[in-house]
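From the methods appendix. Each design record in this collection lists the tokenized structure first, followed by the designed amino acid sequence. Records were kept in a plain field format so they could be parsed without special tools. The example shown here is representative of the layout used throughout.

RECORD:
FOLD TOKENS (575 positions):
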């Protein structure tokens, strides 16, 4: 059916948009930005904060542009005195209950409330009311909630609901309403999986990662410590945003140069253990296919997904690959192979993983892997360290990772985008099954769509695959598998919509960017471009893999590889 088009005017500018479009969306076509706070594209559209109020024909009072649909002949005014006064009053009311600790707030200069308050010249002390101090929730190793900075916009709640986790929601009523977990229990006692989607959704400093920066500075200053950094694939595609570079700029060389200037002993490339993960995972998959063992097999490199299975679908645990994630493999490899080869006492080693993720902070605190990685810091934390050290990021030369963990395949790099782990595994698994199989591009599993499916015929085996991002989508697919409605052999799941490029530890961008730029796509494009340029596109072709296996593990899935590179999972108590 043909879509009906609607003609209207916004601030006198004619606009034609499809029926059902909101005034907020239509205004963007006229290059007019209406201020928002509770609205966030693809995440939240609850129409509660009233920052986006506009005047329009056909309505008596002000209407919320984020939820009000356009109509034929409508005339909208977005910047009248009435709109501005209403927005100013809204901001002053919000500020009456907001802990104004801007100087030490990690969102200082990157806060939607601060930006709007400045723009509308608010009197931040206009309304002085009762003070209502709420405790700061530091119960998890990954997220900190300071509800005295919360403006009750509900974006975090919507982000969590979109993941189908429902770990947080509004508690109490009226003046006393605040966001928290059921019965006001600490987050650690909720079903939270640590994905951090709530953190990147928050417009202010009420949610942040639990910072480990001080531990890293202390280790760097300690002469008895051998400090090693390694960076996850997606960080190079996002770190530049923290230095005002365009979304999708690959800053790999500058990132390495900046970390080197922080003073560690080595800067390594986590893409190397993404390749190692593929060597182990592809071998495990082939073994399961050949022996007809527990299928489908799920990937295991996303700790939020692992926690989700352990909590909600413990019966699916045998379907998880036993491979540790690339982060944990790197830590384990440094502790064993690298320490042995370099005569480093494992105790003096201090391993810092730079990740796009909040749940990887939880992962390295898991009991069974506790000593692999000392500290995991997010892309945001790395950016803060670089700024604190006075490093002029954009002026840095491009530098290279340190050997022996520098060179990796393009397959390792695309791990950072949804479908990337699947494509990397297919490149190697297909080649392991059929040495003449030369296909390197598996386009069907690329792109940011939340569920991608494909079937491949390799060496007489029909392999049905799916790449899923977002936990609500994973839940649907698991239910279909349990009900016998869908059958696969191999499934990639990444908890964050779009994969790690959109992880909970990535830079927090302003709403004006988030609401207009396709972040997931632009960031993923940078990784696929790097894969395209790479001479090495299959993990099994990497000479670093040859060295690691010849020197140390023997072959993929060997006894030694199992001891060091694999792990186990267990059912968590259902909350
Ligand atoms: S970290 Fe993820 S699961 Fe936990 S509260 Fe935030 S959005 Fe929900
Ligand atoms: S914590 Fe942040 S995202 Fe959640 S309601 Fe408060 S201000 Fe909004
Ligand atoms: S998708 Fe990536 S960033 Fe998100 S929770 Fe999983 S590993 Fe972390």
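DESIGN:
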């Amino acid at each position: 059916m043909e879509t009906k088009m609607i003609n209207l005017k916004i601030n006198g500018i004619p606009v034609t948009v499809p029926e059902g479009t909101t005034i907020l969306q239509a205004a963007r076509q006229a290059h007019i930005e209406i201020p928002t706070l509770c609205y966030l594209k693809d995440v939240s559209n609850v129409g509660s904060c009233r920052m986006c109020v506009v005047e329009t024909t056909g309505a008596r009072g002000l209407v919320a542009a984020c939820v009000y649909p356009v109509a034929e002949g409508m005339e909208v005014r977005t910047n009248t005195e009435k709109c501005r006064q209403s927005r100013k009053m809204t901001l002053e009311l919000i500020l009456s209950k907001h802990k104004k600790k801007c100087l030490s707030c990690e969102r200082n200069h990157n806060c939607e409330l601060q930006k709007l308050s400045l723009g509308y010249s608010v009197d931040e002390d206009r309304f002085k009311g009762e003070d209502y101090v709420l405790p700061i929730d530091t119960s998890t190793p990954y997220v900190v909630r300071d509800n005295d900075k919360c403006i009750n916009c509900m974006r975090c709640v919507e982000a969590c609901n979109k993941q189908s986790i429902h770990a947080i929601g509004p508690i109490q009523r009226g003046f006393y309403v605040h966001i928290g977990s059921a019965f006001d229990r600490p987050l650690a006692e909720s079903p939270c999986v640590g994905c951090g989607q709530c953190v990147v959704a928050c417009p202010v400093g009420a949610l942040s990662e639990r910072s480990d920066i001080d531990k890293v500075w202390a280790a760097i200053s300690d002469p008895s410590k051998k400090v090693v950094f390694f960076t996850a694939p997606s960080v190079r595609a996002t770190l530049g945003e923290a230095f005002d570079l365009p979304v999708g700029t690959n800053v790999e060389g500058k990132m390495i140069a900046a970390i080197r200037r922080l003073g560690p002993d080595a800067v390594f490339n986590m893409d190397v253990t993404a390749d190692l993960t593929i060597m182990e995972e592809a071998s495990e998959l082939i073994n399961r296919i050949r022996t007809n063992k527990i299928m489908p097999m799920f990937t295991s490199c996303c700790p939020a997904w692992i926690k989700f299975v352990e909590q909600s679908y413990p019966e699916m645990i045998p379907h998880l690959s036993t491979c540790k994630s690339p982060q944990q493999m790197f830590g384990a490899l440094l502790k064993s192979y690298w320490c042995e080869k370099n005569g480093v006492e494992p105790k003096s080693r201090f391993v810092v993983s730079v990740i796009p993720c909040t749940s990887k902070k939880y992962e390295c605190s898991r009991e069974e892997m506790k000593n692999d990685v000392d500290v995991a810091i997010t892309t945001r934390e790395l950016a803060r360290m670089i700024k604190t050290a006075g490093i002029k990021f954009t002026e840095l030369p491009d530098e290279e990772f340190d050997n022996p963990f520098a060179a990796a395949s393009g397959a390792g790099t695309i791990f950072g985008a949804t479908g990337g782990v699947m494509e990397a595994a297919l490149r190697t698994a297909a080649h392991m099954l059929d040495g003449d199989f030369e296909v390197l591009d598996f386009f069907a599993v690329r792109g940011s769509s939340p569920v991608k499916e494909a079937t491949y015929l390799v060496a007489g085996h029909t392999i049905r695959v799916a790449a899923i991002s977002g936990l609500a989508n994973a839940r649907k697919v698991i239910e279909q598998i349990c009900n016998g409605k869908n059958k696969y052999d191999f499934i990639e799941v990444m908890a964050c919509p779009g994969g790690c490029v959109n992880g909970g530890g990535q830079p927090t961008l302003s709403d004006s960017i988030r609401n207009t730029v396709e972040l997931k796509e632009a960031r993923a494009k940078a990784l696929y471009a790097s894969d395209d340029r790479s001479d090495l596109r299959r993990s099994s072709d990497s000479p670093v893999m040859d060295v690691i296996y010849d020197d140390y593990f023997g072959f993929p899935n060997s006894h030694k590889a199992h001891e060091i590179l694999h792990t186990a999972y267990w059912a968590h108590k259902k909350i």
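APPENDIX NOTE: The pocket of iron/sulfur cluster (ligand 2) is lined by residues 150-156, 179, 201-202, 204, 206-207 (CB under 6 Å).
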